[in-house]
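Possible regression after last week's pipeline update?

I re-ran a chain I had predicted before the update to compare outputs. Posting the input and the new output here so someone can diff against the archived version. Not blocking, just want to make sure nothing changed silently.
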Amino acid sequence: MSRKIIPYILLLPTFIIITFFIYYPAAMTFKLSAYRVSPFGNRIMFIGLKNFKFLFTSQEYAHVLYTTLIFVSVTVGVGLVISLLIALLLNEKVPGIGIFRTLVFAPYAISPAVAGTLWAFLLSPAAGYVSYLFLILFGTQPQWLTSFPLALVSIMIATIWKNLGFNIIFFLAGIQSIPKSYYEAATIDGAGAAKKLFNITIPLISPVTFYLVIMNIIFTTFSVFGTIDIMTQGGPGGTTTTLIYKLYRDGFVNYRTGFASAESIILLAIMAVFTYLYFKFAQRAVHYQ
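New output (post-update):
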């Protein structure tokens, strides 16, 4: 056997798995987006681009798109700011800091569904600790999961908490890679903590920030399904329904396979365009040591 063919033989199992579980489903998604499929899947009718036309003219889909944009923007922005502040605190040399660094990663180790279950319990008006605390302090129990905008805020809080560990670990690694001589020189020049943060730390961890922005957008767009399904099921009145959750309901609850396929293609296109634009323009602000 020629040695040139051995690498291809070793990669063959991977190619087979990728073909059956990624390429083939993707091809079927593109195909089904041009068809109307019966709820039982026994009949399909070619309708061309009508699924896309319906989605682009649907006020419901426009509302879901707007909700997703707000959800992703707030969750990613606030989450990264909080993560950076915590990473700065964990970078300090205090007794027991190693324990805190270990514990802070714990939320990321659990699944989105488990995170949703924990927060649904904490925010429950009947037995939730957060609701009980509000009752003691303010004499009221907010309807966290059944009223707008509290339901959307609750999903945001759960998602931010879930991603904190991942963000903090990367921020902490980036901060610790900055040479201490930069801070020593800044101290000699009379720079305070704020100037060091904005003129040294933030610019030099920009490659980490760039990576985390992309990853957090992907996480909050696709992985939030489990959290939403456990906490609000897209309610109240669809106010916490994001693109990925609407795709699930159309495909697996309402059995509108054609619409769901079209929605997945639109979601893929949105992510691809945003990632391209972000790499094209935002990377200019990235500074490498």
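Follow-up from reviewer: compared with the archived run. The radius of gyration is 23 Å. Marking as no regression found.
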